[in-house]
Amino acid sequence: MTSCAKCGACSVVCPVYRITGQEAHTARGKIHLTQIPELPGKGVAFEDIFSKCLLCGACSAVCPRGIDVCREVVQARSAFPAVYGAHGYKKYLARKALAHPELLAPLRVLGRAGADFVSRYLPEESGLRLRLALFKQEVEEAPAQQDAVVSAGPPQKEMLTFFPGCTGRYLFPEIVTSCQFVAASLGHALHVPDGLSCCGLAALSAGDKREAQNCARKNITILEQSSGPVLISCASCYAHLRRYRELFEDDSVWRIRAETLVARLVELSCFLDRHLPQGRANQESGKKLRVYYHDPCHFRYGLEGMKIVTEPRKVLGRNPDLELLELPGGPECCGQGGLFHIGAPEISLLIRDALAAKVLALAPDVITSTCSGCLMQWRLAIEASGMPVKVLHLAELLRAVTK
Ligand code: SF4
Ligand code: SF4
């Protein structure tokens, strides 16, 4: 690893450090700890420090030495036991649920039905309480006739393979049907192959490279059965699938298969930026819908072609019925961080609510994003605020404003 200059640039941008003020939570602090020979992999305090990282990449984006901090944190976590850090057992269970994503759909039903009852018995700071509260929000049911939505547009030119991610597929199927609707309006049909696994990001973030490789192998094998572009609607899944090559650094056969898949990946807002024409105004009143676009950290700080910030804004800007809002100080992390919001709910809540206060001051009608995790966090933030603001995936918003 390139040595740390101890310049402190990473401290200024770290969302966790802004809340805790603890040097150990900065990238500089963590890197220093990994370099003390008798410390790495030893002790609850060490595990706790390394669990308090969103893996947002803000530090690496400003680091003059170009240190890949997320990689270092994941590497350190790989030496930890399966259950580590505060609320470690909840994170472990969440990871195991993601390893069997078909279980998420029943959880969604259970969560919505039982959230009020169960949450009464959970402590205020419980990550599980946050998760159950998510399901209290009424969500649109998936249309029974998905094919009817697909065939609603003009004659389809091309069948695209579609990777919706676990949340889109099992928790919020309206994201999938909205993507199908928007793609159909552009003459494309979307096909979701059977047997797709979780992308594996949750496993890798916890330091479980073997589980992450298992997920990657399953997805590569399934997606190899089709050809052409693979469209991805979730920012976290896209960012992680782009990094499949790195998972197989020591396995030349799987690395080549991963590289072949990576070359086929297309992120949704980039796809729409390429294909979506300028829209017509539909609002007779001339009133515009005020929209705040939330940048997923994966795309704000992304390397290797993963910096995707202008495309979603250009897509939204083509609709004359939408007014795009921006924070004066620029975009900020929402504090979700994959399973971070379960492992460190008190920090996650403070980051979330600080951002929500700034965004709500803009008086948005809609908050949109392409990251399923960020959208979950925003749904909880809006529910907590009691404000009448909708939280929609980009495809859901485009579908809603398409007449
Ligand atoms: S990845 Fe994000 S949360 Fe983790 S140390 Fe870097 S800036 Fe802080
Ligand atoms: S920005 Fe990079 S070099 Fe500077 S203190 Fe942080 S990790 Fe070290």
- Find the structural class using helix and strand composition: alpha/beta
Strand content: 5-15%
Give the N-terminus to C-terminus distance in angstroms: 53 Å
Mean of all residue-level pLDDT scores? 83
CATH class of the domain at 278-400: Alpha Beta
Number of strands: 8
Strand order of the largest sheet: 2-1-3-4
Largest sheet: 4 strands, parallel
Characterize the quaternary organization of these chains. single chain
- Summarize the amount of helix as a percent range: 40-55%
Gyration radius over CA: 21 Å
Number of helices: 24
**Distinct compounds present:** iron/sulfur cluster
What CATH calls the topology of the domain at 278-400 is Rossmann fold
* CATH architecture group name of the domain at 278-400: 3-Layer(aba) Sandwich
Question: How is this structure best described in words?
Answer:
With 403 residues, the protein is of the alpha/beta class. Among the domains are: 9-77, no CATH class; 278-400, Rossmann fold (3-Layer(aba) Sandwich), CATH 3.40.50. The protein is 51% helix and 8% strand. The protein has 24 helices and eight strands. The chain has helices at residues 9-13, 15-20, 27-34, 44-51, 58-62, 69-77, 88-99, 104-119, 127-134, 146-150, 165-171, 173-185, 201-205, 209-223, 235-242, 244-247, 252-262, 268-275, 297-300, 310-317, 340-343, 345-360, 372-385, 394-400, and strands spanning 158-163, 188-191, 230-232, 265-267, 289-293, 322-325, 366-369, 390-393. The chain has a four-stranded parallel beta sheet with strand order 2-1-3-4. The chain has a four-stranded parallel beta sheet with strand order 6-5-7-8, with helices on both faces. α23 links the parallel β7 and β8. The longest helix has 16 residues, at 104-119. The chain starts with 8 loop residues before the first helix and ends with a helix. Bound molecules: iron/sulfur cluster (SF4) (2 copies).
